């Protein structure tokens, strides 16, 4: 199991747990209002609100982990495109890491995991 898939699994499980806590706290605050327990109702409401904020942050982390996993998958399986050249005499390549210093010149900066460069 890769680190990204583990991060996605943990984030989604925390998302489900926070949603359940939010629903339980909201239900408890409604019951407290029905029985005129104002202090407990307010406390339960604020706890539910904090849980909702945590729910949103966990959801954002899960989306970020999903985006990173998707980016890694695409870059690993499809690579990156070589830099476009106007002249067909020059050849361009895309590699991971810096090109040899003497023979090549960097034409663009890092694009994902790849460095675009061309032969001079």
TrEMBL record:
Name under which the protein is recorded: Transmembrane protein
Membrane-traversing stretches: 12-37, 43-68
Keywords of the record: Membrane, Transmembrane, Transmembrane helix
Superkingdom of origin: Eukaryota
């Amino acid at each position: 199991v890769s680190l990204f898939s583990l991060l996605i699994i943990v984030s989604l499980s925390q998302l489900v747990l926070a949603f359940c806590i939010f629903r339980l706290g909201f239900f408890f605050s409604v019951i407290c209002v029905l029985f005129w327990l104002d202090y407990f109702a307010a406390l339960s409401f604020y706890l539910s609100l904090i849980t909702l904020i945590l729910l949103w942050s966990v959801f954002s982390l899960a989306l970020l982990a999903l985006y990173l996993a998707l980016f890694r998958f695409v870059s690993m399986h499809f690579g990156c495109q070589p830099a476009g050249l106007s002249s067909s005499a020059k050849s361009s390549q895309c590699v991971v890491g810096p090109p040899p210093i003497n023979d090549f010149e960097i034409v663009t900066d890092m694009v994902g995991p790849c460095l675009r460069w061309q032969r001079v």
